[in-house]
Every structure is written in structure tokens, then in C-alpha cells.
Amino acid sequence: MKRWILTAAIVAVLAGCATTTSSTGRTQYVGGVSQQQLNQLGAQAFVEAKNKGPISNDARQNAYVRCVVNALVRQLPAQNQSVAWETALFANNEPNAFALPGGKVGVNTGIFTVAKTQDQLAAVLAHEIGHVVERHHDERITRQMGASGAVQLLGALAGDYGSLATQGGGLLAQTGFLLPGSRVQESEADQVGQRLMAEAGFDPAQAVNLWQNMIAAGGGRPPEWLSTHPDPQSRIQELRNRAGSLVPAYQQARAAGRTPKCG
């Protein structure tokens, strides 16, 4: 009976898959789980990340991150603003950041070594938020929704998170939420994120400076967490070209009073 119920549940999940189109016009295969379930998975994964820590209690840096995130979120579509966005700052020297479904943003203190201005920090966080907005986590889960993947996810959503975490390394490992996306997803997050930062009043040209800082910090190579991005020099050129086309959006944002003063 249990096997029949599980099989029926898997069939129901996979039957819900569908195609949609991202804001950049790319066809996506999504729907392996509902948005509510996706948000629940994001919240659980965020709890796991915070439990692993360590969390930084630096009040100034925490406020700085929240300020940048809030400025970006205010420019998101209504459905993405309806969740209560939450940030966490981790005392970790690796220059890393992530965003999860359900409005969860994590930032390592090491990011400040490469994101040296609020505009550069906005470039990092807008890119990560872009993954959420464009449903990249949904795509990844749907793509991985073989029978074993469905069992893991359905078990987690049914409240079996504790045993899942001990048996398989937790939701972060099971769902691959914090793994780099495909090159297509990374390029799309670059495009969406740079547009978002411009609309929020951050200088889109600073995305170029951020990437140059990352390469310099890595001794000529990007950090490991960005290994799936396009060739660094090609990416810099794409960011530079796009920054020029985003000047009107940036100027319009500033004229409308969107002038973030985060740090």
C-alpha cells in the first residue's frame, strides 16, 4: 500500500510539470513541485545553512546586506515581493552568496573582499536573486525529478526532514540548491540581475568591476563557486556591453528617487 501511494504521488508530481518562458524569452521546464512546496524547501534549506553557520553578529554588516537586499526586492514583480525576505550573514572567508526560493538570502563575510562598494554588492545579490525570480531552482528540481529524487523531496515535504538530513546530508545536498547553475542559468541570472540592480538605482557598470575584483582575488581565476559561468573575459565584455544599454534604466531610477545609501 505504501509503495502504491508513493508511486501515485510521484506520478502526480511529474504530471504537474510544464513549460514556461523566462523573462529573457528562454523556454523552461518547471513544475516538479508547487511554488508553495518550493518555498518550503528553500526555508528548510536556509534553516540548515544557518544551523551549520557560523553566523556573523556584526550589526553594521548585517544592516548593510539587508539594505541592499531590500532595495533590490522593491523592484521585483509583485509575486516575489509577497514573501518576507530574510537575510543571514555567515562568518566565512569564502567570497560567496546565495538566494533561495521563499525569499532567503545568505552572504559570506568574505564577499566584502571583492564587493567593495554597495553597487558591487548589489551586483552579486541581484545575480543570486535573479536565480530565484527566473525559477532556476524549480528547473533544477524538475530536471532531477527521477523516482529517487521524488522520494527525497516528497519525504522532506511530508515532514521527514530530520531523517532526510541525517541520512543524505540534508536538503542542501539533496536538492543541490547551493550548487552552481548551468551556464545558461548563470548567464540568464547575470542578465536579469544587472537589469534589476539598474532599476533599483545601483550602477550596472559596477558588475564589471566586481567581476574584475573576483578574478584578481583568485589569482587570475574566478572563485570555484563561479566555475560554471561563461569564460571570464567574455562575461566581462557581456556585462560591459549590457551596462551601456542599461544606462537609461539606471538614470530613470535615480531620477525617481531610487538612490540607495547602504554603505
Automatic annotation (TrEMBL):
Entry-linked Pfam families: Peptidase_M48 (PF01435)
Cofactor binding summary note: Binds 1 zinc ion per subunit.
Keyword Protease: yes
Keywords, comma-separated and alphabetical: Hydrolase, Metal-binding, Metalloprotease, Protease, Signal, Zinc
Cofactor(s) the record lists: Zn(2+)
Keyword Membrane recorded: no
Domain Peptidase M48 span(s) in chain numbering: 60-242
Signal sequence extent: 1-23
Gene3D superfamilies: Metalloproteases ('zincins'), catalytic domain
PANTHER family: M48 FAMILY METALLOPEPTIDASE, METALLOENDOPEPTIDASE OMA1
Family per similarity comment: Belongs to the peptidase M48 family.
The name this protein goes by in its record: M48 family peptidase
